[in-house]
Amino acid sequence: MSPARLEKRFLKWYDAHLDAIFRHIRFRVFDDARAEELTQEVFLKAWDYLRRGNTIREPKAFFYRTANNLIIDHVRKKRAVQVSDREVQETIAGDTAHTLMDHTDARLALRALAQLSEEDRHILLLRYADGFSPKDIAALLNETPNVISIRITRAKKKLRALLSSKSI
User: What is the residue range of 114's domain?
Assistant: First the structure.
């Protein structure tokens, strides 16, 4: 593929996926500035991958997988996610938080999400914030759709328990 055509295709993917990837990362790291950095790193890695002559067949899955790997690296370095009231309020400014937990106070939902394990938070955000189906999540995480559905159900149960408790 010619370099001009490759660049055009990449820019199309970038425009189509930038906002969703940023939103996904922001919900995982609770820091807008760091989320922006990681989002740009996702697309830089993808561009480098393409420039080396590799092919990306499923760009959405590639971007999310790259983002998840970068988030894991970030969390390992940080070791603990601290959510301040200011960060919660900034995150709530986006309407995604409101759709995540239908009629539940978004502020409490975000605090409860922060208390979940990284795996549970990740699976719920992929499902409800990013709109992936269990089948899509399964492909992304190399699991079966049944395993993903069970993990979603268990994570929702934990989230409901946190929301109903007075600890958040």
Answer: 83-168
Length reported for the chain? 168
* Residues 38 and 58 occupy one common structural domain: yes
pLDDT for 66 beyond 90: yes
**C-alpha separations of 64 from 70, 79, 85, 106, 143 in Å:** 10, 21, 28, 24, 15
Three-state secondary structure call for residue 15: helix
Tally of domains within the chain: 2
**Number of C-beta neighbours around residue 31 at 10 A:** 20
Which residue from 166, 78, 82, 159 is spatially nearest to 125, judged by alpha carbons? Answer: 159
DSSP letter at 75? H
Whether 77 and 87 share a structural domain: no
Query: Mutual orientation of helices 106-115 and 85-92 as an angle, nearest 10°?
Result: 120
Render pLDDT for 100-129 as a digit per residue (tens, 0 to 9).
444 446 667 777 888 888 889 888 888 887
79: phi > 0 → left, psi -120 to 50 → alpha, else beta; which?
left
